[in-house]
């Protein structure tokens, strides 16, 4: 799981916004969205923001704070902005009016400016109280937004910000956001009026509030009914948990590997996990031959990870686990490898000792196993290690393999041999383990080749095999063997290929992209073929590509070519978007989502950060989990989805970082269990209900498929509507059967067809 900024390569990211608006690129920024509904790259939608910038050193203050209205027409953005002499703790009222031909911005009922031009709406929800995580630098102030109201002729919404706006100052220090969202579908021709009320407040010296974190790793300035107050609360909860898990019991209709035994069919058991396609649907097949839709949990048991940095800020913690004795393993130095000597600690360790005693690490593992099984999950997922008797997804590393830039030089025989040995050492001891679902190498952006990387390789000396291979490929494939044409295009002097090897070329972006794809293809092929030669028994799952966090869509195609299953991570409120759905169809391979999550924000009242796919509370997290799993199970290509992660992150952040800030890195409530090792029952109950029935749900969706001609005929009879398929029928695409633009779900189409209409 990467840092939060890495997750935001989507339509919501605007990394150059301050440059476009204010004319200067700066090193620090803070941006609070009073209202927003936009797709920056597509030039669609609008946003109403408070945003400022400043020097890299020091915290941002209101002297550089702008109020900005941005409106897009499908081709470009236009802006209205103002920078008043802000008064602290004063209520401001702002209103934006967006009409088909112009937009207006008002501050305290005074017109700031009218901007003439068109407007084109953007898909996605309307959000309020949001702060972009890429522009969340330290500031001397915070925004209390108490009102957010949107009105159109046929729609209106009033966001309830009462809880968020009345939080104490210390909770704003942890999280300056409110975060509300709602579906908002208003025709472009209708007038939209957006109103917000806010005030600005100066932060006091945070040291006056030390300590921020109590003995149990919870925010001292937060209060909720289940908050741990004394050690006895942990023991009481442990007893209650044991009673509940025993009452639920384990699944009865599965084999030893999680395969379902009551679907009425099975495949030949091969002693290892594999995938098969049946009636148009891909299925994960257990070693015993039984079908399953794999649901997994990442990063368990997390007894000593994730750790939070404590150097230079011990004062923010009421107490921490001992650095010696029973909890010594909870501590670490430079856990992110940054060489700063920073000390880190896993605050949950003290709670595990209070709960389980001196054998806390082994007990945490046993507890995680029982919980995951009882909640109906198929097994563990990424970042979990090896669990006896529990299926897992294993991520291999390439530590010890030399790199030429970011990746090993797979054109160099010596490097290839070293690479193979590193993989062999990790795989060989486990290649006959039936509990391994599959291997992958690395994860996410670490396994994506970049254009910058290619230029760095070409800048190397002539002894680098990758440089020679790229030069040879360019000459033969890009320039048809014409050395003169290559030399001219690369702006070098070359009378033979050795001159090219010795040069420092400057190829075009198009050439770099072609070379990038060539290198990536060679690398992915080497990894796949090498791993399969070491272990032909297990699946190879591609390295969990993140849609949008790549150079371009070709990365999906390149990775998808050399694997048995395409692994990907997708943090989104919906199971897929149009781009992901299209790529999944195009590659026509089974896919497995290695990470998704809906961490609860708790309306900002517990000290956690606001993640991009957040939920309001644990119950909503569970409801979103159900919807995501069902959409995945309904998709013919998806063979499983995995929740990130088992335990909440520390509210002070997992790092990396060092200093006196309150939060470093991610601090999200991702977990099924919290920092005190207590199950979130509102989430867990919903997860269990979903997990127990999800494979049967997939079977039912598979059984419901009918010929397209019957479905289209049914829709014509129903009034000549467009078909917009749900995720179970993405392979059908969109068919125009008339002039109406109403949406009809394919499930409804099937129902009509089965009735003979």
Radius of gyration: 28 Å
Tell how many strands the DSSP assignment holds. Answer: 27
Major sheet: arrangement of strands: 7-6-5-13-10-11
Largest sheet: 6 strands, antiparallel
| C-alpha geometry | globular
Classify the beta-strand content into a percent band.
15-25%
Oligomer: single chain
Number of helices: 18
How many distinct domains?
5
Name the poorly predicted regions. Answer: 2-27, 706-757
How far the N terminus sits from the C terminus, by CA atoms, comes to 49 Å
Overall pLDDT metric: 90
Task: Provide the structure class.
Answer: alpha+beta
Residue share in helix: 25-40%
Question: Overview of this structure, please?
Answer:
This protein has about 750 residues and is α+β, with helices and mostly antiparallel strands. It folds into five domains: about 5-205, Jelly Rolls (Sandwich); about 230-250 and about 295-380 and about 555-700, no CATH class; about 250-290, no CATH class; about 450-515, no CATH class; about 705-755, no CATH class. It contains 18 helices and 27 strands. Helix 8 (about 450-460) packs across helix 12. The longest helix has 26 residues, at about 510-535. It is globular and about 70 Å long. Mean pLDDT is about 90; it is low at about 1-25 and about 705-755.
Question: Tags for this entry?
Answer:
single chain, alpha+beta, 757 residues, 5-stranded antiparallel sheet, Jelly Rolls, globular, 6-stranded antiparallel sheet, 28% helix, 18 helices
């Amino acid at each position: 799981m990467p840092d939060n900024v890495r997750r935001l390569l989507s339509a919501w990211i605007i990394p150059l916004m301050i440059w476009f608006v204010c004319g200067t690129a700066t090193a620090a920024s803070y941006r609070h969205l009073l209202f927003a509904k936009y797709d920056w790259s597509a030039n669609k939608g609008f946003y109403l923001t408070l945003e400022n910038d400043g020097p890299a050193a020091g915290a941002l203050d209101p002297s550089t704070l702008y109020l900005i209205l941005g409106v897009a027409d499908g081709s470009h953005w236009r802006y209205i902005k103002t920078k008043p002499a802000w008064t602290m703790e004063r209520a401001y009222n702002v209103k934006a009016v967006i009409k088909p031909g112009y937009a207006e911005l008002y501050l305290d009922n005074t017109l700031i400016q009218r901007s003439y031009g068109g407007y084109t709406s953007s898909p996605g929800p309307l959000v309020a109280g949001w702060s972009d995580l890429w522009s969340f630098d330290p500031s001397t102030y915070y925004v209390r937004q108490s009102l957010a109201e949107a009105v159109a002729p046929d729609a209106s919404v009033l966001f309830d910000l009462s809880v968020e706006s009345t939080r104490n100052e210390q909770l704003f220090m942890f999280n300056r956001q409110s975060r509300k969202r709602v579906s908002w579908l208003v025709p472009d021709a209708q007038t939209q009026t957006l109103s917000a009320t806010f005030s600005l407040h100066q932060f006091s010296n945070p040291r006056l509030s030390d300590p921020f974190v109590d003995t149990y790793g919870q925010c001292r300035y937060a209060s909720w009914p289940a908050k741990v107050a004394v050690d006895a609360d942990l023991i009481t909860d442990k007893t209650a948990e044991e009673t509940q898990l025993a009452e639920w019991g384990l699944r009865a209709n599965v084999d030893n590997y999680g395969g379902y035994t009551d679907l009425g069919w099975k495949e030949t058991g091969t002693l290892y996990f594999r995938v098969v396609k049946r009636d148009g649907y891909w299925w994960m097949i257990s070693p015993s031959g039984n079908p399953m839709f794999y649901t997994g949990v990442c990063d368990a048991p997390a007894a000593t990870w994730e750790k939070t940095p404590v150097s230079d800020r011990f004062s923010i913690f009421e107490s921490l686990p001992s650095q010696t004795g029973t909890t010594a393993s909870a501590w670490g130095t430079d856990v992110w490898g940054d060489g700063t000597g920073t000390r880190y600690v896993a605050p949950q360790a003290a709670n595990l000792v209070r709960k389980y005693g001196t054998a806390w690490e082994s007990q945490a593992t046993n507890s995680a196993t029982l919980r995951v099984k009882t909640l109906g999950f198929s097994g563990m997922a990424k970042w979990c290690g090896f669990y006896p008797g529990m299926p897992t997804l294993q991520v291999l590393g390439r530590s010890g393999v030399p790199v030429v830039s970011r990746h090993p030089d797979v054109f160099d025989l010596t490097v290839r041999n070293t690479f193979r040995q590193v993989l062999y050492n990790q795989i060989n001891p486990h290649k006959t383990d039936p509990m391994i679902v599959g291997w992958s190498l690395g994860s996410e952006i670490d396994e994506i080749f970049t254009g910058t990387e290619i230029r760095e390789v070409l800048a190397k000396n002539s002894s680098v095999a990758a440089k020679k291979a790229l030069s040879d490929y360019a000459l033969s494939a890009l320039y048809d063997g014409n050395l003169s044409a290559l030399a001219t295009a690369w702006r070098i002097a070359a009378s033979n290929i050795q001159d090219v090897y010795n040069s420092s070329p400057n190829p075009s972006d198009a050439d770099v992209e072609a070379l990038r794809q060539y290198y990536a293809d060679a690398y992915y092929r080497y990894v796949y073929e090498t791993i399969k030669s070491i272990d032909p028994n297990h699946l190879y799952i591609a390295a969990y590509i993140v849609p949008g966090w790549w150079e371009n869509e070709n990365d999906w195609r390149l990775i998808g070519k050399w694997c048995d299953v395409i692994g990907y991570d997708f943090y989104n409120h919906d199971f897929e978007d149009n781009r992901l759905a299209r790529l999944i169809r195009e590659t026509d391979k089974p896919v497995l989502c290695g990470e998704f999550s809906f961490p609860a924000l708790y309306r900002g009242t517990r000290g956690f950060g606001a993640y991009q796919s957040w939920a309001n509370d644990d119950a909503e997290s569970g409801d979103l989990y159900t919807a995501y799993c069902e959409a995945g199970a309904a998709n013919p290509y998806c063979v499983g989805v995995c929740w990130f992660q088992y335990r909440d992150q520390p509210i002070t952040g997992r790092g990396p970082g060092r200093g006196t800030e309150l939060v470093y890195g991610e601090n999200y409530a991702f977990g099924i269990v919290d920092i005190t090792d207590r199950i979130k029952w509102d989430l867990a109950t919903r997860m269990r209900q979903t997990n127990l029935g999800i494979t049967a749900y997939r079977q039912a969706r598979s059984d419901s498929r009918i010929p397209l001609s019957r479905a289209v005929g049914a829709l014509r009879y129903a009034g000549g509507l467009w078909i917009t398929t749900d995720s179970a029928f993405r392979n059908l695409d969109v068919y125009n059967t008339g002039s109406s633009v109403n949406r009809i779900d394919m499930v409804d189409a099937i129902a009509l067809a089965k009735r003979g209409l």
